[in-house]
Specification:
Blueprint (H helix, E strand, L loop, with lengths): L6 H26 L7 E2 L3 E2 L4 H29 L6
Antiparallel strand pairs: 1-2
Helix pairs in contact: 1-2
């Protein structure tokens, strides 16, 4: 059985979905948990301790944590010589 979704498209869709889920989780955390201190993205950039601030913090953090390895995998996979193995 053949799928209409290619591998690269599937991975990018899954990546986007996970970033959105992290944003929603951050929003819900900022909404329902009280007494939270302001998060700092990369320990440098402060975000406000509001639902939108936590949503942005969660989405950006997961985008960076998942995005860097994904970019490295793409970089290596495009430059590896299949004949050398």
């Amino acid at each position: 059985m053949r799928s209409n979704v290619g591998g690269r498209r599937f991975v990018l869709g899954l990546y986007a979905l996970l970033v959105v889920v992290a944003g929603v989780a951050g929003f819900l955390t900022g909404t329902f948990v009280s007494g939270l201190s302001a998060p700092r993205f990369l320990f440098l950039i402060p975000f406000p301790p509001t639902p939108v601030g936590f949503a942005a913090y969660g989405a950006l953090t997961l985008a960076l944590v998942l995005g860097l390895p994904l970019v490295l995998v793409v970089f290596v996979s495009e430059r590896i010589d299949d004949d050398a193995v």
